[in-house]
Amino acid sequence: MKIKPHWQILLSLALATVTGLLFRNLASEPGGSQDFVTGVVGISEDVGQFFLNLLKMIIVPLVVSSVIAGITSLHGMAGFGRLLSKTAGFYALTSLLAICLGLLLVNVIQPGLIDGAPNETIREAFNDHEADAEDLGKVKEAQGVGSSQGGFISQLSGFFLRMVPTNVISAAAVNGQMLGLIFFSILFAVAMTRLDIVRISPLRDLFVSLNDVMIVMTQWIMALAPIGVYALILPVVFKTGGVLYIALSKYFLTVLLALGLHLFVVMPIVIKVLAGVSPMAHFKAMRTALLTAFSTASSSATLPVTMRCVQENAGVSKATASFTLPLGATVNMDGTALYECVAVIFVAQVMGFDLPMAAQFMVVISALLTSVGVAGIPSASLVAIMIILTSSKIPGAETAVVALLAVDRLLDMSRTAVNVFGDSCAALVIAKSEGEKVLEG
Ligand code: ASP
Asked: Which atom of ligand 1 is nearest to 380's Cα?
């Protein structure tokens, strides 16, 4: 019998915890086991690094092809330009609302701090990559963050300047310049849609196929997740004694609360105001899609169900649904954007890395941009979180991603449901604005 992927990950988590604790005991006993234990933990760290390298290896082609394929695949439809600007506006607005909600809660609840100081247990788990105070100082200086010279506006303009790469090839090659690459990809895709469909379709097909290939490769890598998780968590438990899970619970609840508020409060208000429909009726129409999203943790896998629910139950026309939903499944991810923002600021809190307002604003923009490049498959956000952590020079990026993976599954399921609901609301609002009769009666 084949065990479902999320059970495999949970199982390897449990095994890693048990082995980690066992090794901890062995190492503390007088006798000859220390060398053996340290040797195995060392190998485990290397295997974990191998898994992380695999994830990083696919970032550039995955993100570029996902953005370009998502934006261009519907080029050629009647009313394309008008629909694209309306849909993009709605997607940007709702993603920003989600991110700001996440930002607010993570700052109010401060899941990474205990009594105002960084949570040492989690910090220890991230310790491997901790930079010393001098390094942090240099980094902040280079970023213009936290320096006394230059206020909010100049820090902000610096960020936007850095977002535009002077050389797109080197932006792709250099760690931490992914935002520049995403910015270029969005412009590139929009430029493609300005050209004649017949002339541009070979290029478009190339990116669509590239994206399909990258999704298969991502699935292969994610199939190794149980091994990767085991190898990465074992040393963490060995060093921290497993209290990491308890320490992460506040973070876990913060994400769930923010996702819940976005799904059950913010989005219902948005559709009520913009489309004048009953949120309850829309929830009812989308029931099956929400459950499918929750259980598969993949917006792309849920797409056929979302399409059916939106057309058959909510009464959106086929044309509007087939424009907004496939695009939404790849580029519009409210839950993911919110999650990225909470996760990144949480890691900064844990690392004692002070993020002034300008830096937090940059996290907001980065979350918005990277959520566009995240593929609609399980755990895809981890790639984006890695990008933001590296580009904002917050130390501990890699081990942080691992620790977050330990509690990711339920959060992934929940944010995917929020992602899919966001897409369906876009379909509803756009349909209404095009004069269609939706959710009537
Ligand atoms: N699993 C999410 C989705 O498919 C993406 C993510 O946030 O990892 O929508």
From this structure: 8
